[in-house]
Design goal:
Elements: E1 7-13, H1 14-22, E2 26-27, H2 41-52, E3 60-66, E4 72-78, H3 80-90, H4 108-117, H5 122-127, H6 132-140, E5 142-148, H7 153-164, H8 172-179, H9 184-193, H10 196-199, H11 211-225, H12 233-243, H13 247-266, H14 280-295, H15 300-314, H16 323-331, H17 339-352
Parallel strand pairs: 2-4, 3-5
Antiparallel strand pairs: 1-5, 3-4
Helix pairs in contact: 2-3, 9-11, 9-13, 11-13, 11-14, 13-14, 14-17, 16-17
């Protein structure tokens, strides 16, 4: 007779989960759990962002253990970081993402409400009457639970291993890394990824999945092509194939790239206190503005104050988005990696700086 691992699927609201957690029904330190890096705050906040929008998240795996008195406790087999992020949010240790309202699925009617809760902690959200829908959504969000019924800890440990082993399908950049690993192009991308100015602004990128290198590739291809491109996997694949061994062009591109980064640094924007400037949408736009300025002999002094004032106003909760601010916001709310929206954002910044759009690279 065939044998199958015994398991059962069920659902649990966050409210029910936290009730059980308060009763100390969960063991987050099961003996078969591997040591793992704790999620950074932004990754935790992004999970809460997904929950408040009712996006699906992966299932949580638990092992029920019934004691001699009939009381049940649960070993957390997989999903520890997700559950701890939820607990952290409830207990006021992390805020919601600052970019909560920057999601293309939001319509204009709901965007204002989303902007009102962005960046806030749960306690502050609960104090605001108009945010009641988000509070209800959070508590009633349904977690998918997989119960594993197995006494053999080695077998349970093997489940944890299967869930977490490095068997996840390679993403497009990881595939490029495998295919172009020895090429001058990829070597340059890796080198530029270590540029100090960019290196400390990559918190939102999944560095372990090479998203930082993919982003740097997009910047480099802007320089090499002298125009913005769509950032679809197919387009990036084509660019990698095109420039993989173009040593002369790559050397020229590297020099220009470094000049652009120097220009960006000279803008002296406050990335430390305005982390949203580090988001790839805005970082790419700033790079493209500096690229335009470098290629049109526009001095830093001509744009420095205007750019700083633009983002200060753009990220202010009291801003009424009109003119170039609205153009930028619209282009930052959907299809952000398309060539047309990239151009729209750069052009909005150029208008803010009173730069004649007739000027061409």
């Amino acid at each position: 007779m065939a044998k199958f691992f015994e398991r059962n699927s069920t659902k649990l609201t966050i409210s029910e989960f936290y009730d059980n957690y308060s009763l100390k029904k969960y063991n987050f330190k099961a003996s078969y759990q591997r040591k793992s890096n704790v999620w950074v705050e932004d990754k935790k906040s992004f999970l809460i962002d997904s929950i408040l929008k009712n996006y699906p998240i992966p299932a949580i795996f638990m092992r029920p253990i019934v004691d001699e008195n009939g009381k049940t406790k649960y070993d957390i087999v997989d999903g520890k970081q997700r559950l701890q992020a939820i607990i952290n949010f409830i207990e006021g240790k992390i805020p919601l993402t600052m970019y909560f309202a920057e999601d293309r699925f939001l319509d204009e009617e709901s965007r204002q409400l989303a902007e009102n809760v962005a960046g806030k902690k749960f306690e502050d959200i609960k104090k605001e009457k108009e945010s009641g829908e988000y509070v209800k959504q959070f508590w009633t969000y349904t977690l998918q639970i997989e119960y594993l019924y197995e006494d053999d800890l080695d077998l349970v440990s093997s489940v944890f291993d299967r869930l977490n082993r490095n068997g996840e399908p390679l993403n497009p950049q990881e595939l490029r890394n495998a295919k172009f690993s020895t090429t001058p192009l990829l070597k340059l991308v890796k080198k530029l990824s270590e540029t100090s100015f960019l290196k400390d602004k990559r918190e939102r990128l999944k560095i372990e999945r090479m998203e930082d290198e993919e982003f740097v590739s997009e910047l480099l291809f802007l320089v090499l092509n002298k125009k913005m491109l769509d950032s679809t996997p197919a387009t990036l694949d084509e660019q990698y194939e095109r420039y993989k061994n173009e040593i002369v062009l790559l050397n020229e591109g590297e020099k220009e790239f470094e000049e652009i980064i120097k220009f960006m640094d000279s803008l002296e924007l406050d990335y430390e206190n305005n982390r949203r400037l580090c988001w790839t949408t805005h970082l790419y736009t700033l790079f493209s503005l500096c690229w335009y300025c470098v290629n049109n002999n526009i001095r830093v002094e001509r744009v420095k104050d205007s750019v700083a004032n633009f983002y200060s106003e753009y990220f202010s909760k009291n801003t009424e988005y009109m003119g170039y601010l609205k153009e930028y916001k619209d282009a930052a709310s959907s299809r952000t990696r398309s060539a047309s929206q990239k151009n729209n954002r750069m052009n909005a910044l150029l208008k803010c700086c009173n730069i004649d759009l007739v000027e061409k690279v």
